[in-house]
Design brief:
Blueprint: H1 39-45, E1 54-58, E2 67-71, H2 88-101, H3 108-128, H4 130-141, H5 148-164, H6 181-187, H7 190-214
Antiparallel strand pairs: 1-2
Helix pairs in contact: 2-7, 3-4, 3-5, 3-7, 4-5
Length: 224
């Protein structure tokens, strides 16, 4: 090809055209020649497509042309994680259920009284406030609870203390110090007090249901 000569009329350019190939207007249309593929490329083109996560190939050294498939391991999306995240409502329910299960080895009298006191605590909080309701529970338990009634009051007070003063709860006790809910209610801010009362009522909703399901009902109407 001579420099400056139009390429459209050069015989070398039109050498690869096939005869009889014309466009819609009668003009001659160029049909490019197919490039010859290398043996490796031909081998790759013969691989069957098995999906996005699969790889199949033909072993060149295997004269019987047996197909070997390597399947990529895929994790099961429905398999539960070892520690699935839980929302606030699930955490309340789990703690309320664990508190009831701690009474499985106690005598029937204590379990009956505990169910009765749990039913009364919610209305007492709404009437007198969380501080006075918990102070009444603490006073009914006494310094050394021995009777089933006193121990039931002590169990209920300690269960609420554990929930409201746990790591991530409303009140954060100092490292090494036992949680003291009454002191935290008295010395804390008003915003924390309101939050603690709301959280206690939400926890009691689950706790009362679990008490009705797992604890026996009281046979008498003992007032204490």
């Amino acid at each position: 090809m001579v420099r400056g000569e139009p390429a459209a009329r050069h015989p070398v350019v039109h050498a690869g055209r096939r005869p009889g190939c014309h466009g819609a207007l009668g003009r001659r249309r160029d049909v490019p020649r197919q490039r010859s593929l290398s043996p490796a490329r031909r081998q790759r083109n013969r691989r069957p497509w098995l999906g996005r996560d699969h790889r199949a190939y033909l072993d060149p050294a295997d004269h019987s042309a047996r197909r070997r498939c390597l399947v990529k391991e895929r994790s099961n999306p429905r398999a539960p994680s070892p520690d699935p995240p839980r929302n606030a409502e699930q955490r309340r329910a789990a703690d309320a259920l664990n508190a009831v299960r701690q009474l499985d080895r106690e005598d029937e009298k204590l379990r009956e009284r505990y169910r009765v006191y749990t039913e009364r605590l919610g209305p007492s909080i709404l009437t007198n406030g969380l501080g006075q309701a918990l102070a009444s529970e603490r006073a009914a338990a006494g310094p050394k609870p021995e009777k089933p009634e006193a121990r039931a009051h002590d169990y209920l007070y300690r269960n609420l203390t554990t929930w409201l003063c746990h790591p991530g709860g409303v009140y954060q006790p100092r490292p090494g110090d036992p949680p003291d809910l009454l002191t935290a209610l008295v010395t804390g801010s008003e915003a924390l007090y309101v939050r603690a009362q709301t959280e206690a009522l939400a926890w009691l909703v689950w706790h009362k249901k679990f008490c009705r399901a797992h604890l026996p009902a009281a046979k008498d109407r003992e007032e204490d």
